[in-house]
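sorry for the late reply, my laptop died twice this morning and i had to redo everyting from scratch. anyway the thing you sent over, i finally got around to it. pasting the sequence first so we're on the same page, its 460 residues, then the predicted structure underneath. double check i copied it right bc i was rushing
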Amino acid sequence: MFRSKAFVVALLLAVAPSQAMAQESNEDQPPDPDTGESTITERTLGLLPNPIEKQGVKFAATYIGEVMGNASGGLKQGTFLQGRLNLAADLDFNKLAGWSGLTMHANIFAIHGDGLSRSNLQNFMVTSGIEALPAVRLYEAYFEQKFLHDKWSVRFGQLAADSEFIATKYTDVFTNASLGWPAITSVNLPAGGPSPPLAAMGVRLYGQLSDHVTWLAAMFDGNSAGPGADDPQLRNSNGLNFRVNDPPLVISELQYAWKDAGGVPHLPGTLKLGGWQHFGGFDDPHFADDNHSLTDPQASRTPRQFAGDSGLYAVVEQRLYTVPDHDDRGVGVFLRASQSPSDRNLIDRYADAGIDLLGLWDSRPNDKFGVALGYAHVSKAARALDLDFRALNGPAWPVRSSETMVTVAYQYEVRGGWNLVPNLQYILHPGGGATDPRGATPGLRLHDAFVAGLRSVAKF
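ok and here's the structure:
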């Protein structure tokens, strides 16, 4: 099933607009990537006046500063300071030139500091969603045209997938990157897929098919950094590669939403089913192209190639409790699960789940608290390679199995537009139980890591 390229095409054609369509509510809008709030009703510090907003020009600046360290585990212990300034602009061509439904969005990241996962932990589920190599880079830059009473829209340009696909609004309190764009896609896809800090050239179609059903589909360039063995962020250091000639990545998602659960009003929820197909070549984690194990000294050292890669996923989110007379406050839960072929990927199964408590107290209506769990399973092919290493190096050599992450976060609103987010993370078997390259004993396993951090998010 996963090897077939036809399943994505079938998913794209599985539905047709057959019912009356309803206006999308703010509840259904994807959250702002920096504040976690609705992109329609953002709260700011009011320090960046915009005298030309009525003429159709909006701009925003957000700074995320973060200190994060691991008191135990990983390769070594340490503390890092990192930050990202996000400068964004939106143009409304209806106000600017009378072109109804056409808008443009662009934003630039200015990134500084070092990353805890990259330098200390070597884990799959990166501890911070802003972790990246220091750079000033263009992120997204796209046009969007809405039509049919804003029920349908098309985006084209340099796009990210994580804000709309495989997404749930109940993860916005967390700082771990995998609770945004999940590790199964960031690890398996070339250049990590279209997600921070590398968006990709593409086109996205959105349609409201009925009061309850929404459909999204997109095609991206399959490798925003281009081919190479070094870090993808170095191969596209400024976000200006604008590549369109790589094998494409296609992704589609069907969403079914409800406003009441079990007959109880004001308990909205959504079920999302999706899949993706990449049409490029993917390395076998175990065998060389001469069918010898990659551990074999006689092997060709060139991994065997597979044509294409794919994945299926499901997302469920449900409000369990709504504060009376405040539909934007309450308790929500989420569950996401995904699977990809084991013969050509490092991670073949992934799942996460959690609970988000928003504004339960009238005295703190914009505070959030969340607890989440993530799980990434190492594929059979990668485990088989580890077993070959064990046969060569002795029983002390570890065989990777899975990585598990538990996190707790609290978002404290200092004032409108400024939040502090203390958070804790515990990572079991970083990298699935990977080898510590510094270990005096061959095959020494990376230790479980305890991580503490404090994030400050200021939207000016």
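The longest strand covers residues 269-288.
thats about all i looked at so far, will dig more tmrw
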